[in-house]
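Bug report (template v2)

What were you trying to do?
Predict the complex of my protein with adenosine-5'-diphosphate.

What happened?
Run completed; filing so the output is reviewed.

Input:
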Amino acid sequence: MRIHKLDDELAAKIAAGEVIERPASVVKELIENAIDAKSERIAIEIEDGGKRKILVRDDGDGMNADDLSLCVLRHATSKLSTESDLRRIMTLGFRGEALASIAAVTRLTITTRTAHDDHGNCVTLSGVGSADGVAPVPAARGQGTTVEADDLFFNLPARLAFLGSPRSELFHINRVVQHAALAAPHVSWEMSHNGRVTLNAPGVSDLRDRIAQIYGAELAESLLEVRADTNTEAGGIAISGYVTPPDFHRGNRRDQLFLINGRPVTDRGLGFVLSRAYEGLLRRGTYPLAVLRLEMAPEIVDVNIHPRKEEVRFSSPRRVHDTLSASLQQTLASPEAVGPILKSGTRESGEVYISGHPPNRERSGSRADLAAGRSAGEHGRIQSTTEPGLWSGSGQPSSKVRVMEQLRGAGDASTGQGFSERLAGRERRVIGQFQQTYILVETIDHLEIIDQHIAHERILYEGLRRQWAESEIPRQSLLVPARIELSFESAEILQEHTAELAELGVEVDAFGGGTFLVRAFPSALAESQARLGFQALFEQLVDVLDQGGSSRDAILDRLLTELACHAAIKAGDRLPLLEQEKLVEHWSTCEHRTHCPHGRPIVFQLHRDDLDRRFQRK
Ligand code: ADP
Ligand code: MG
């Protein structure tokens, strides 16, 4: 084929593809325009995940008829005129290509009115990147702008085919809106999907209040403030925002937002600085929640490096990172940050009882323990005082339970006598715990080193699986339902899967906003999970559900794995010898003894001969 110039319409569609990837990109551009127009109220209406309809209504400056006819042209903008302006961008938009791009791939209607006009004006376009503007017609409207973009990609079937389900497109939209709402707390935000209100956040003066609207008041109250003020005009960086204290963490990184001069951006470097600041404070695989605003002179940050303006480049990344790092360190070293950890402390004796209560103590004692447990707090206490059946969860024959009972009577956990001695003639003898993480076991010819967490996870998992396969997983009601707070998108995911969770004995009720109440939990896990708290668990469950793509059985299985993992005793938990013995005993009857359901090894064996060789006995 000879070289020829593409016709305007095709060229416009290709260019639009850079900017408009999916419905969420349209939403992002439209709300950026509304913010740039100094709006105080922004309302968003979405239908079918934005595939059918995206409408953004604002009460901002509006446009007069002349501007309206120009705004849909490519490279038409009111925000930039000379090249030097490009180095000082303080608006969210600047390229003048969003409306042109949206016009090229949707059916677009813009209605707008300024404060000076006595009537509004309207233009309608349908899949045309118009070359010379469009003639506005008069329309009734108060001050502000309404943009409606329908039938995205109706004229680009190849692109349309790549869009996700309405549900998954809605997740992306929610994320964009949530970030914008956090970036602009003074603005009132409303959003609906298919007529159902999904966000209603009246304008507030403080970021913490906006965080409360989105993540819940409880989380917002616990937040630590981050603040660093340097003279931004002299090339300094001002930082403000909030992070969660170390004892309040999330199961994923989704809730970390960096706002550079008010613009939500993804930046691996900043994410890394945040993780580093929490190093050693959080368990692996958990993350802080953070909303951090970095303000700096526009000359030292290039916002023009990404087609959808999702990334920026700092002229001196080191300085930005160091400033952030220092202010996070200061925040995390403050008494408020350290306080809660000291206060909560460990449970009374510092020992963990796998069966949820000390062997020789009364049940009421264990309830007191539970109430003292920090994460349980007011919530999540257990109603039933029947044997929580953690071991019954492993499906042991009842004779075994009786044996345990006898042993419990005969031996005293603190002296370490009893069970082990009785086991002496049998297969295994527990020697003890190494660094409160590994259990050392003697067999006839091996030393076994067992990871206590992974072994326990395996026991719980197999028990739950068996119960589930046989009939149903026994559940226990929580005396005070445990409250969890989820972000928008997480809440949507959870809501869609409450039936699956109920099948596994996990009963949750949506309580509005992102709040859920956990009402019942599998009996075998309830007591230990209540002690640990439910928040991180549910975030992880949402992650599992969000992976999608698998059969229902596979999803249920992954959920079981997650439930077992969270309720299992942890590395670092001190176990009395009797509990170690019970753990090993139950593990030795597991169907798959060598690996946890995630695939991590449970046991490491060292043969007597290997030791002999090492010590040159042989
Ligand atoms: P950019 O935002 O990069 O300038 P856009 O294509 O998004 O480019 O918008 C083009 C112009 O249309 C903007 O510069 C602005 O003047 C005007 N405009 C767009 N949306 C609005 C709005 N909601 N309120 C007022 N003016 C708007
Ligand atoms: Mg714009």
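What did the reviewer find?
Residues 339-350, 356-425 have pLDDT under 50 and may be disordered. Residues 452-470 form the longest helix (19 residues).
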